[in-house]
Write a structure and sequence with these properties.
The structure is a single chain. This protein has about 210 residues and is mainly beta. The chain has two helices and 15 strands. Strand 12 (about 160-165) and strand 13 form a beta hairpin. The longest helix has 11 residues, at about 85-95.
């Protein structure tokens, strides 16, 4: 098994309201889970293969709670990646070279029964985790934006965080409002729903903790 490690940033938008029950071992508030995720790898490696500066993304659809399975997924890999880098990223994204259920990649992969062929393309991704702002465009597939939650009366920005000391994706995530529109084999639209902004540090055994 190749050893891997990545440090980076992510924006995730799912169909739940702000907070997302799944973060607290609850059930999705719409009954199903639809999600879009984009990750910027600032530093990374898979074995001897560098992953610095690369991006990856995915679309997910589960007809019910994630743990019940029957999910559908489409993975996107940065077209700038070499053949070895593409292979490395796909192995990480599909939960390979990872201790059982140690990362969100491994957990989600175990619940997917329809995996579309990966798309190697340009992933236009901008992320400001502290500012709770981001956007991702994948031509022909995804348009996603994220911004801070705003007070419904005053319009001022509201800051909220989720802290998961034993989480399998992050330790701290800033929560914002996000919207997405997807095309291709998995079309759907999310508007002003859960947006997750997080710095991530993961390796083959899960979240790397200070």
């Amino acid at each position: 098994m190749a050893i891997w490690e990545i440090k980076g940033r992510e924006l995730v938008n799912c169909s739940c309201d702000y907070g997302c029950n799944c973060q607290f071992d609850g059930l999705p508030d719409k009954g199903h889970c639809w999600a879009v995720a984009g990750i910027q790898i600032d530093e990374g490696r898979h074995g001897e293969t560098s992953l610095d500066g690369l991006r990856l993304a995915a679309i997910f659809k589960w007809p019910g709670p994630i743990h019940e399975g029957h999910g559908e997924a489409l993975a996107f890999v940065d077209q700038r990646a070499s053949e070895s880098q593409r292979g490395a990223l796909l192995r990480i994204m599909t939960g390979q070279d990872t201790a059982p259920f140690a990362t969100m990649f491994a957990v989600y992969a175990s619940t997917v029964e329809t995996m579309h062929a990966p798309v190697f393309t340009d992933i236009d991704l901008e992320l400001d985790i502290d500012g709770r702002r981001g956007r991702m465009t994948i031509d022909g597939y995804v348009e996603m934006t994220g911004e801070p939650i705003r007070n419904k009366v005053s319009g001022t920005e509201t800051r909220a965080q989720i802290v998961l000391p034993n989480g399998f994706e992050y330790e701290v995530a800033d929560i914002g409002s996000a919207s997405s529109r997807t095309q291709g084999p998995m079309p759907f639209e999310l508007r002003d729903s859960y947006g997750q902004f997080a710095n991530i540090h993961l390796d083959s055994n899960g979240v790397v903790r200070a």
